[in-house]
Amino acid sequence: DPNNDGFLCVTCTAPVNIAVIKYWGKRNEKLILPTNSSLSVTLGQDELRAKTSVAVSSDFNEDKMWLNGKEQSIENPRIQNVLKEVRRRARKRLSDSENEADLLLKHVHIVSENNFPTAAGLASSAAGYACLVYSLAKLYGVQGEISDIARQGSGSACRSIYGGYVAWQKGKADDGTDSYAVQIAPETHWPEMRALILVVSDQKKDVGSTEGMQTTISTSELMQQRVQGIDKKMKLMTQAIKEKDFPTFAKLTMQDSNQFHAVCLDTYPPVFYMTDVSRQIIQLVHSINDSTGHIKVAYTFDAGPNACLYLLEKDVPLVVSVVQHYFPLSTMHITGPAVSEYTLTS
Ligand code: 2P0
Predict the structure, then answer these.
(1) Which of 69, 164, 265, 267 could connect to 187 by a Cys-Cys bridge, CB 3.0–4.6 Å?
(2) Contact predicate 78/154, CB 8 Å
(3) Rounded CA gap, 247 and 242, in Å?
(4) Does residue 2 carry a pLDDT above 60?
(5) pLDDT category, 345, cuts 50, 70, 90?
(6) What is the ipTM of this complex?
(7) For residue 299, what are the β-bridge partners?
(8) What is the band of 22 on the pLDDT scale with cuts at 50, 70, 90?
(9) Do the beta carbons of residue 69 and residue 116 sit within 8 Å?
């Protein structure tokens, strides 16, 4: 009832981010501290985003949450972790003002929806938790760094707090205070950059990321080698982005995706996220690059078979027509780097 004086509601949207240097593996499961740093591009709002409304009212008797129209258990430990942390920070800030502290006594209702398939390896948890934490922070007036709270919902979510090109610094501290996201360059920095998401399957993945990376950490020797090379790759990738050096950006992106999936194969029992169609897309991208003599397009695959192709605006017509020719049944979303946004509705 929006006419109720005690009703306050905030609605936010947050886009997905697709990593070009992948996060895979935790050194602390509870705090979600990663084994290695990672770097991603936050994509456009219209195509792939989560939208979350959070509301408090004196009429609510308990905290509740709905995802894509279905009620979910609010007891989910990750939801509880972010809710507790936002309220803890709010309590610190609000302690002087009794009126505002009243806000913390009220229960919260959370309503979230994605405009794309959930848990199909399209970073739905990243957008979802970034959006939840952003909305809660606005509702409770929490200021300052919040990507470390989003991280406690889902690791990759910390990167969707910022737009453009974003690094998640793994940090060294045991308490996670130095493990948060940093914007490398804003969305306006490289206006020609485009991402083409090729949805080849909207099925939920068999092995979730959380479980898959645990098995990798306990079984893969190749993972140790990967970890040793990451800091150098982070530096080279950051430099390529700053200098808008597309061929270097693209090559590093493809190599990191391939190494991540090699590590999945080296996991015992192995984890397969790519399918035959994914591998056909890889071959197609290399054919386009080889036939033109330039690296015009890069692929990257997350914990699922769907491809994200990075390319420059001028090459979109060529790449789209080739992809449509070979994969006429796939769904394509074309977007570019974007900002995270919020709107205060009431
Ligand atoms: C990434 N992925 O950097 C990598 C690439 C999947 C492959 O982050 O356990 O859903 O919630 O921290 O964030 C997927 O992992 O895992 C992921 P949790 P998350 O985007």
Answers:
(1) 164
(2) yes
(3) 13
(4) no
(5) very low
(6) 0.99
(7) 309
(8) very high
(9) no
